[in-house]
Specification:
Number of strands: 27
GO molecular function, one term: procollagen-lysine 5-dioxygenase activity
Structural class: alpha/beta
InterPro entries: Collagen_mod_GT25, GT_PLOD, Nucleotide-diphossugar_trans
Strand content: 15-25%
Strand order of the largest sheet: 16-15-14-17-25-19-27-23
Number of helices: 15
CATH class of the largest domain: Alpha Beta
Helix content: 25-40%
CATH topology of the largest domain: Spore Coat Polysaccharide Biosynthesis Protein SpsA, Chain A
Largest sheet: 8 strands, mixed
Protein name: Procollagen--oxoglutarate
Organism: Lynx pardinus (Iberian lynx)
Pfam families: GT_PLOD
Length: 539
């Protein structure tokens, strides 16, 4: 008669049912496909550097700051990957990647990030890059570019992109090791063939692209190539630290790549990112790799190049100040170029005083009829040809050094080329430029005024300097071993020096405490050799 139909359920059974449902409820809405975060120790950065340069060391400093694990390929090899930044090439990098990736081919949980190093700076750390890579939901992500290189005929073969950069850039990519291995194992070309063209042809092949699951970093979330994007990227400070931001896509790229003609902009970012200068701590690199002259028994030998290229007021005072420099006179030699007959009497008076303290004084007078460029080449070569010359200190006669320790301070910074900031009292004029215009002349960088006024104190990598600077002798005998640095088309000698230095940098890459003002009486680069020119402000 259905006697059980109306029988109530035992309360205990209902309680057990409710408890089971409660235990399971947090999992009901979970995404079973959502992967767990990749541990940072499963990320390996790979780069290629057949030679170490200042650009390489800057890259490694940024990697060390974020605790990246970096494997460097090609060390000690001859570079056979092409002639320079405006030519095709780079296949040697793919060949090296092909060789090394064989060892990681079966490590399915390993993520490999390949990047250039001479013109790249990390702006974010492993955790950030892995998170962004996972969100891409692809096995391999290449950097994206707004410029198609090297074969513009391939433009139509690229997938349509409605918002973002469309073209592949091989300067940076990230992916799971087995999938990157599948890509590089297809390489069967020569070292001087083009790496970007190789990767491009794989990407634009729909079957290969889908089989390997490749995409581009269209909105520069991981990789920021600066060529063609100069107006998109700005420096921003967040919590006192600097970061490069793409204001067009509202993204914070992890790796900045100064590809093509954007090395100067990258150098500007490198003055701050990731921690070179912060609002809270100021210059964090000023004490890096410095030397302490107070601990040495014998000071380095310095040749001082003095240039009197025009009638100069107070020249006797300028010359006397040189003799008051806080530096052992037995370690000094002088090269003096005087273009003005009017100043010959001043030079004689100075020579009669200085010869008792300084053993070697070479004077080139107006009778030699040398141009300013020829004289500066001669002065630099005077140190270059002298194996005992450890430093070359060039100074124009219209610069007044108000700190006797200037020379020591410059040497202790231990840079290839370094210059003190020279300003005019109460003016924004100085002896450096923070940026260049498209035609290679002066442009004001965002930080120029703050540096000149002493609000930002530190070491700055800049594209132009003049009037007073220090160069290591071994740099003159290696990276700068050509004799003619001050002649270039119709440029002034200082412009010629800096342009030659900058262009040498580009080829080689593909190969303060409180401020003091130095007075200049009339108006008148680096070697981040790479080429660096550093600018320092001093007590």
């Amino acid at each position: 008669m259905g006697c059980c139909a109306g029988k109530p359920q035992p309360p205990l059974l209902l309680l057990l049912l409710a408890l089971v449902l409660q235990l399971w409820s947090p999992c009901v809405g979970a995404d079973p496909e959502r992967p767990s975060s990749i541990p940072t120790d499963k990320l390996l950065v790979i780069t290629v550097a057949t030679k170490e340069s200042d650009g390489f060391h800057r890259f490694m400093q940024s990697a060390k700051y974020f605790n990246y694990t970096v494997k460097v390929l090609g060390q000690g090899e001859e570079w056979r990957g092409g002639a320079g930044i405006n030519s095709i090439g780079g296949g040697q990098k793919v060949r090296l990647m092909k060789e090394v990736m064989e060892h990681y081919a079966n490590q399915e949980d390993l993520v490999v990030l390949f990047t250039e190093c001479f013109d790249v700076i990390f702006a974010g750390g492993p955790e950030e890059v892995l998170k962004k890579f996972q969100k891409s939901n692809h096995k391999v992500v290449f950097a994206a570019d707004g410029i198609l290189w090297p074969d513009k005929r391939l433009a139509d073969k690229y997938p349509i992109v409605h918002f973002g950069k469309r073209y592949l850039n091989s300067g940076g990519f990230i992916g799971y090791a087995p999938y990157i291995n599948r890509i590089v194992q297809q390489w069967n070309l020569q070292d001087n063939d083009d790496d970007q063209l190789f990767y491009t042809k794989i990407y634009i092949d729909p079957l290969k692209r889908e089989a390997i699951n490749i995409t581009l970093d269209h909105k520069c979330k991981i990789f920021q190539t600066l060529n063609g994007a100069v107006d998109e990227v700005v420096l921003k400070f967040e919590n006192g630290k600097a970061r490069a931001k793409n204001v067009f896509y509202e993204t914070l790229p992890v790796a900045l790549n100064g590809n093509g003609p954007t090395k100067i902009l990258l150098n500007y970012f490198g003055n701050y990112v990731p921690n070179a200068w912060t609002q809270d701590n100021g210059c964090t690199l000023c004490d890096l790799d410095t030397i302490d002259l107070s601990t040495v028994d014998v000071h380095p030998n310095v040749t001082i190049g003095i240039f009197i290229e025009q009638p100069t007021p107070f020249l006797p005072r300028f010359l006397d100040i040189l003799l008051t420099l806080d530096y052992p006179k037995e370690a000094l030699k002088l090269f003096i170029h005087n273009k003005e007959v009017y100043h010959e009497k001043d030079i004689k008076v100075f020579f009669d005083k200085a010869k008792h303290e300084i053993s070697t004084i070479k004077i080139v007078g107006p009778e030699e009829n040398l141009s300013q460029a020829e004289a500066r080449n001669m002065g630099m070569d005077f140190c270059r040809q002298d194996e005992s010359c450890d430093y070359y200190f060039s100074i124009d006669a219209d610069v007044v050094l108000t700190n006797p320790r200037t020379l020591k301070i410059l040497i202790e910074q231990n840079r290839k080329i370094i210059a003190p900031l020279v300003t005019r009292h109460g003016k924004l004029w100085s002896n450096f430029w923070g940026a260049l215009s498209p035609d290679g002349y002066y442009a004001r960088s965002e930080d120029y005024v703050d540096i000149v006024q002493g609000n930002r104190v530190g070491i700055w990598n800049v594209p132009y300097m003049a009037n007073v600077y220090l160069i290591k002798g071994k740099t003159l005998r290696s990276e700068m071993n050509e004799r003619n640095y001050f002649v270039r088309d119709k440029l002034d000698p200082d412009m010629a020096l800096c342009r030659n230095a900058r262009e040498m940098t580009l080829q080689r890459e593909k190969d303060s405490p409180t401020p003091e003002t130095f007075q200049m009486l009339s108006p008148p680069k680096v070697l981040f050799l790479f080429i660096f020119i550093y600018f320092c402000l001093f007590n």
